[in-house]
Structure formats: C-alpha cells, structure tokens
Amino acid sequence: MDKKKIILDCDPGMDDSMAIIMACKSDALEVKAITTVSGNYSVDVTSKNALKVLELIGRTDIPVGKGMPEPMVRKSPKDPFTHGTDGQAENHLPDPATPLCGRHAVELIIDTVKANPGEVYILCTGPMSNVAMAMKKAPEIKSMIAGIYAISGAFGLNRYAYANATGDTPQSEWNVYVDPEAADIVYNSGVKLVALGLDVATHFDVNLTDGDIHMLEQSDKPEAKFFLQAIRFVNQRGFEAYCAVIDCMAVGYAIDPELVTTITGRVGIETKDGLTLGMTVLDSRHHFVWETLPEVEIGESADYEGFLKLLMKLVLA
C-alpha cells in the first residue's frame, strides 16, 4: 500500500513533539516536510524543538522549514498553558546539530505540494499562519492539496469541548485563537478540511493504564522516555495525560480515519476582539442555516482505545 504523503505543520510543544514521533515512525505515512510556526512558543523555539525530536528518533532526513514568526495581522498571545522551560515538558533534549533546510516554511509548503499535486495532506497541529500564507502567496496550490487534517476549534458537541478550552477566551481553542484570520482563510479555502476540535482531542478517556506506563518505563527507546516525562510533567501540574498527546489525534486520523467519526457542518471563525475571539461557530440549526459559511468535516467522537493502542505501538516500535 502506498504511503500517505504529509506535511506536518506544527508548533512544538510537547504534544507536537509526540505527533512528530508518531508520524515519523508510522509505516503508513511519508513525512515530506515539517514546517514550524509561532504558537505554543516563538518560531525560534518551535523550530529548534522540531529538530531536537528528529535527532532523537534518527530522522534528520526530513527537512524542517522555519515559518511565520507572528500571526497574520496580530501579535502572538502568551499561552496560559506552559509546556515547560524548554517547551518539551522539561525533557531538555540536547541542542540540535542539524540545520534548518534553508527554505521558509511557506515556500516549503508551496514547493512540496506542487511537486506532488493531489497527493499531499497537510497536518496542522499549530496555528494556521503558514498554510494560510501559502494559500495567499500561491492560490493555485489550493486545488492541489489532497486534504487538511487539523487540531482546530471547539464545536460544543460534548462537555469536553469547552471544559478543556485551550484558547484565552472562554470557548476557543488555542490554534484558532492565536491566528483566527489564518484559520478563516483556510476554512474558506475550499480544500477538504477535517477539524479535530477539543471535542475529540482533549478527552479524559485519552489516559494511559498502569500497564502502559510500565511498558514505557521498561523501554530503552528515547522517545518512550520523552513520552513518560511529558506525562509526569502534566500530571504534576494537575492535568490529565491527554495534554501530552493532543496533537497526536491528527496523526492518528491520517493513519486510520476510522479512529474518528466526523459530521459535516458549516463553521464560521470569529475574528472580532472580545469574549468570542477565536471561536469556531458551528451553525447546526435545522432552518435558516448561513449557507455562506464554509462546510467542513468535524470530529464528533473517537475510538480512544484504538488511538492509544496505535500511539503506544508506534512509540515503542
């Protein structure tokens, strides 16, 4: 079976770091490029962290392009949730010896898509600044992108959507909140978008068993030790283990779309400052639906047991 070609556009972050590990170790995926953006941390930090993880797992063959240092029209907000002083749950991996690829993330996205028309899926696990800018700079790529799988939004489909809100307004998700204008561009691009929101990505069922923890402790894999430290880091701060692997849900979906059940809905992005900035507003009415809103696929429920089995298998492989 042919591997699915992907670009991983991310802002590492411990969960983005785990997503890189998961994607690079999967036989189902071919990681064509990793592009970094400001989000959880500045793009200097996220770029360095991406290189650190690739060196950790011996995948320095994958090019890393450093991307947008700020959202498209705003200043970067400060993340209220910390990933530690190193951005990687205090794993303190050594500084990378591998250089960045030399191309800006936006150019790397454009070039990779054009070199593989109709074949590349973009996995967005950070703000959509790079992808939106690529679409503005080279609008012709929109028809060439196979699809976008994004950790994006909160749609109110269950109590987790807003109880675990990660943005800095009451009902927003961090990636959209950081750059709502970019999200608005991507959601309206016409590219097939699967938005895996907090409804499915921050679920308390994403928690490891004692047996899982034991297997990680017994493993000699450096990525298993990284994962174990990330879990300990979030647990010590009163958070559940899901915080360490939120972004892995996009990778899981890319590997096996049956892990997530989706619904189709019309969604608008709130770009006005105030109480609702960064909200992904789902128009789920029976009548009078705003037909002008873009139609996207939204994660409604997930097979968390299957997701965790896949994650553990790849980490320990």
TrEMBL record:
Species the sequence originates in: Enterocloster clostridioformis
Signal as UniProt keyword: no
GO molecular function list: purine nucleosidase activity
Chain intervals for the UniProt region annotation (Disordered): 67-95
Keywords attached to this entry: Glycosidase, Hydrolase
Superkingdom classification of source: Bacteria
Biased composition (Basic and acidic residues): 72-81
Identification of the protein by name: Inosine-uridine nucleoside N-ribohydrolase
Gene Ontology terms describing biological process: purine nucleoside catabolic process
Residue ranges constituting the Inosine/uridine-preferring nucleoside hydrolase domain according to the UniProt record: 6-308
Pfam families for the chain: IU_nuc_hydro
EC number(s) recorded for this UniProt protein: 3.2.-.-
Top EC class of this enzyme: hydrolase
GO cellular component terms attached to this protein's record: cytosol
